[in-house]
Amino acid sequence: MLTIKILGSGCANCKRLEALVRDVVEKENIAAEIIKVTDYADIMAYNVMSTPGLVINEKTLSVGRIPSPIQIIQWLNEAQGKSSGMVALN
Amino acid sequence: MNHTVQPFKISPQAQDWTVVGVATALWLTAYNVIEPFADWLSYDLLALPQGSQLGESLAFFFYDVPKLFLLLGGMIFVITLLQTFIDTQKVRVMVEKRGEGVGNLMAALFGAVTPFCSCSSVPLFIGFVQAGIPLGVTFSFLITSPLMNEVAFVLLIGLFGWKVAGLYLFSGIAIGVISGLILGRLKLERYVEGFVYNIKPRANVEMLEEQLLWSERIHRAWDSTKEIVGKVFWYVIVGIGIGAFIHGYVPQDALTGIMGKSAWWSVPISTLVGIPLYSNAAGIIPIVSALLDKGASLGTVLAFMMSVVGLSLPEVIILRRVLKPQLIAIFIGVIATAIILTGYMFNLII
User: Fold this and answer.
1) d(Cα B103, Cα B140) in Å, to the nearest integer?
2) Looking at residue A37, what DSSP letter applies?
3) How much helix, strand and coil, in percent to the nearest 5, is found in chain B?
4) What residues of chain B lie within 8 A of the CB of A54, using their CB?
5) Is residue A29 part of a domain?
6) What span, in angstroms and rounded, lies between the C-alpha atoms of B173 and B43?
7) Nearest CA of chain B to the CA of A64: how many Å?
8) What is the pLDDT of residues B127-173, one digit of tens each?
9) In a domain, A86, yes or no
């Protein structure tokens, strides 16, 4: 199961990112644990200086902005080990 | 083997640049058409007499609304496009290497150009402190970040021209550098909340390294532009409405008495009044424009605007999480003083 962390402390953008991520995870039926990280000590542990931050399986993917749903789906697929739409040639 | 003819395709990059090119051409056309259009609307279509209060107000409104939105759309796009080149982590490394003085200047400059969300001010503050950057230098960043607002800058260009906008930028950075230097001298480390000095970065974290293509930059800039302009949309309209009213209905020189150069007390009072007020920069500036029109002096008006935009209750509440009350009070006091002095200086020079 994926671990998705949304780093941010209550600003409007942070809430929007969380809502977007939950929405995407639900629609794509992905097994994921979504954690909202609001404590500054924890946020800084990821070296994120611009909130909101998006971390999947301990990998920082986006800092200071809200990525598009398509981008988020691509990251989730990559994290799950699936390729993103490329056909394997034998 | 089958040879199929490939249909002619335009690469996504070429598509993006074509769109940018067409949009620029449309923008330039629109920009040149709005003033005659506004006059036509007020004086021909609505047949209001030239020089009448309603006529003047409406012509002002019909001209400035599209003009400011065109300027906002165009310039915010360019600014956010350039901002995609800023990497906060690299900025921190660059500032780390400098001592005070140059460090303050660099920090103030970066604060001015970095997009600012007040919720980011705390992580950024902590990040700088963690890197060992002197407190005064960090404050230079923290002061110019909210003070130098790209929407304010663009609106100032639109309403007053490059000179005034340049003054705003220059004085904001000067305030950031000087306040940061002063705050640095005061040895205020003991007033920073303790946990800030105890945070350690994790060992196994993969940090973000992005190499963006131009078309990605264009898309991100466009998204940011839509978001920023969307947020200020109604503020601009209402602000211009109020400005239009003042322009048409308030007699010339009505404000010279209370906000003009001879009223020396107007600078500190406007600054102090501005501290608790918080407005979107977008709404305040059209009003500021009308005030200037009616005899308020530039220094007084700039001081008011900077204290409204640069010092705000939401920001103070957020900073309280890392700064103890004494430091917040000193912080506000130093900035307010710097703004007041800047106001006086402009009233004298201009």
Assistant:
1) 9
2) E
3) 75, 0, 25
4) none
5) yes
6) 43
7) 8
8) 888 888 999 999 999 899 888 888 889 888 888 888 888 989 999 99
9) no
Chain A's closest residue to B123, CA to CA, is: A49
Structure tokens at A18: 């969380």
- Across chain B, mean pLDDT equals 85
The beta strands (E) that lie in B42-138 are given as: none
Best CA proximity match to B160, nearest among B82, B169, B2: B169
Give B32→chain A minimum CA distance, Å: 34
Domain with A61, as residue range(s), is 2-79
In the three-class reduction of DSSP (H, G, I as helix; E, B as strand; rest coil), residue B74 is classed as helix
pLDDT digits (tens, 9 = 90+) for B282-320: 778 877 887 787 788 888 888 888 888 888 888 888 888
d(CA B142, CA B146): 7
CB atoms within 10 A of CB B157: 18
Mutation site, A9, A40, A43, A58, interface B, largest B CB count within 10 A:
A40
Size of interface A-B (CB pairs under 8 A): 77
Question: If you ran DSSP here, which 8-state letter would residue A51 be given?
Answer: S
> Can you give A69-89 as a three-state secondary structure string?
HHHHHHHHHHHCCCCCCCCCC
The whole-number pLDDT of residue B4 equals 64
A87 falls within a domain = no
pLDDT at A88 over 50: no
The angle subtended at Cα B32 by Cα B28 and Cα B38, nearest 5°, is: 135
CATH label of the domain that carries residue A27? 3.40.30.10
The reply to whether residue A46 touches residue B205, judged by beta carbons under 8 angstroms, is: yes
User: Is A89 inside any structural domain?
Assistant: no
Yes or no: say if B188 and B121 are a contact pair by the CB < 8 Å rule. no
Question: Does the complex come out with an ipTM higher than 0.90?
Answer: no
Q: Are B119 and A13 contacting, i.e. CB atoms less than 8 angstroms apart? A: yes
Number of domains chain A is built from: 1
Q: What pLDDT digit, counting tens, does each position of A61-73 carry?
A: 988 888 889 999 9
**What is the separation of C-alpha B97 from the centre of its chain, rounded to a whole number of angstroms?**
27
A7 contacts A58 by C-beta, under 8 angstroms:
no
Which among B150, B290, B302 has a CA at the least distance from the CA of B231?
B150
